[in-house]
Please model this.
Amino acid sequence: MEAVLSPAGEVVRTYNLDGASGWKFTFLPLDDIAALAFRHATDDSGWPWVPVQLVHFELGDPQPIDASLHRLAAWLTMAPQLEEGRWELVGHADVTGTDELNAALSLARAEEISGWMQRHLGLTKDQFSVAGEGSSMPLSEDPARNRRVEVRWVPAMQ
Model:
């Protein structure tokens, strides 16, 4: 277990590094991802900035909530000039259905947002990484917050 410290030296969050998950960071407790949007690394680590936006869905629906889709569209217009990289879309579901149903629904949600972005931004399918995590990665105890697609820009590391 490692810790992220504030400039004042206070622990602001802890994380685990896990080689089995491809060395992804797991922050405990889970931060509200939307609050992290458009923040830059401030620790001089050299890690690239990764903007994130959440798109929310109604129970059992692969179509996004209109207001959430409008927020995504506005967020995309405010994004800085993006150079080489890819869009990473990860769909999620609440725990209402079976694991199999939630896995399929979360993937359908991510694919729906990928298709929307391709149609509205003129992007190609190869500019996206699309996955569904089912209900395995909740953000909160509120089921509505867990029905989401996380939209991230991942810059090329070259």
